């Protein structure tokens, strides 16, 4: 896939800036190594050597030439330039490539960020936090009451509750429409992490145990988690209507903060 000229120029400028900002000492180069430096930071050939890359290839990338950019080579380049997570993500977004590194989150669930849990506690309306597998990682008192059929069931995963628990069909008004939409939103998430083994296991298990999930999954519908009107038949409070708003925390993009505003 060839990048437009403007993006190639942006890529070259970004790499040059990161190269020039990288102190030789950080990568183990002693002061004065390889003679007097005419530019700050590392030389192009030093970056190429650190990444096990061709100096010519790296030079052409910085110059914005239209050349092949494999995900593996970009990963080595990210390591050579000591890119932080945000910089690495920017590199792969800019080049329209998928980072081959499997994030730690794909191996085991991370602890819910304390600042997000603190945010939940400050809200008076129902609010809860989902991780990348759509498991509830935290909720406030209002959400605990509203979603008692789910949160008291012992099933942390929203998808598993919706498709495998009979109580969900009674609690969620227009269950089929909502279930189809939830699944389309989850499919969009799987597109961001196609090599995530935990996501694959979740889909495989739900397809095996829920005929509805298997049928809806085969529709291949994809939607963003846009929010909108949500109606519930609460076992104690009767029919309740909310406007759902979903936020993606900048510091934890694999989580979702879901807030429901009474209507």
From TrEMBL:
Pfam families: HTH_31, MLTR_LBD. InterPro entries: Cro/C1-type_HTH, Lambda_DNA-bd_dom_sf, MLTR_LBD. It comes from the Bacteria. Residues 14-88 form the HTH cro/C1-type domain. This is HTH cro/C1-type domain-containing protein. It comes from Methylobacterium platani JCM 14648. The lineage of its organism: Bacteria, Pseudomonadati, Pseudomonadota, Alphaproteobacteria, Hyphomicrobiales.
């Amino acid at each position: 896939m060839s990048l437009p000229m403007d993006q190639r120029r942006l890529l070259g400028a970004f790499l040059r800036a990161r190269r020039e900002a990288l102190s030789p000492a950080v990568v183990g180069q002693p002061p004065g190594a390889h003679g007097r430096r005419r530019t700050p930071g590392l030389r192009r050939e030093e970056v190429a050597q650190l990444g096990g890359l061709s100096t010519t290839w790296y030079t052409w990338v910085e110059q914005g030439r239209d050349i092949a950019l494999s995900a593996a080579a970009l990963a080595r380049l990210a390591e050579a330039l000591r890119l932080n997570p945000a910089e690495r993500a920017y590199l792969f977004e800019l080049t329209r490539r998928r980072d081959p590194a499997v994030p730690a989150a794909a191996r085991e669930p991370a602890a819910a960020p304390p600042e997000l849990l603190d945010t939940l506690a400050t809200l008076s309306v129902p609010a809860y936090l989902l991780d990348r597998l759509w498991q509830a990682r935290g909720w406030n008192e209002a959400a605990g009451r509203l979603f008692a059929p789910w949160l008291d069931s012992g099933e942390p995963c929203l998808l598993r509750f919706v498709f495998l628990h009979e109580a969900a069909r009674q609690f969620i008004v227009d269950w089929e429409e909502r279930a189809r939409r939830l699944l389309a939103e989850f499919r969009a998430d799987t597109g961001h992490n196609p090599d995530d083994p935990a996501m694959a296991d979740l889909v495989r298990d739900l397809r095996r145990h829920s005929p509805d999930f298997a049928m809806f999954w085969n529709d291949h519908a994809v939607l963003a988690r846009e929010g909108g009107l949500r109606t519930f038949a609460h076992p104690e409070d009767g029919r309740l209507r909310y406007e759902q708003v979903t936020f993606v925390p900048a510091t934890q993009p694999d989580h979702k903060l879901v807030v429901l505003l009474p209507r």
